[in-house]
Design brief:
DUF1569, DUF1569 domain-containing protein, about 0% strand, mainly alpha
């Protein structure tokens, strides 16, 4: 399914709201296994799995190794989470989030899991019990809001939803 209208912009300070969950849910449900990407190399099922790894690891869905360095926990976090309004294209991702090009996943299962992760994350009263991000280390609730919103939005826009 290809959409020509620009998706509604989501404020990165509002991840933990019902409105944001509803907007992401609508956009995720508009994605199909045949959605065409505008950039990158992932297929829709791979992108969903990638987001599940990235968004679900700190909530206990996946046990990924710590890949953070002093540089990613300081400059990288400041630049990508706090400073830039959107995720830049072509970023090098943590190894744990990378999907081999030949590996594919059940689209519907990945979509359902992403919706579950987004709902669980957005309903969190606090992020104090979340494990540190694999690249950026400890994040405040405000930083999690920014990162989750920017990352999910980036990949949905990648597929025109």
């Amino acid at each position: 399914m290809t959409h020509t209208s620009e998706p509604e912009k989501i404020d990165s300070k509002d991840f933990f709201t019902a409105k944001t969950v509803a907007l992401f849910t609508k956009r995720i449900n508009n994605l199909s296994p045949n959605s065409k990407r505008a950039w990158g190399t992932m297929s829709p099922d791979q992108m969903l799995h990638h987001l599940n790894l990235a968004c679900g690891s700190s909530l206990g869905y996946f046990n990924l190794p710590d890949e953070s360095t002093f540089s990613t926990r300081t400059v990288g976090k400041w630049l990508l989470v706090d400073l830039l309004p959107n995720m830049p294209k072509g970023l090098k991702m943590p190894v744990g989030f990378a999907i081999p090009s030949k590996e594919h996943f059940d689209f519907e299962k990945e979509r359902a899991l992403l919706l579950e992760i987004i709902n669980k994350a957005s309903n969190s009263k606090s992020t104090d019990s979340w494990t540190p991000h694999v690249a950026f280390g400890h994040l405040s609730k405000k930083q999690w809001s920014k990162l989750l919103t920017k990352h999910i939005d980036y990949h949905l826009r990648q597929f025109g939803v």
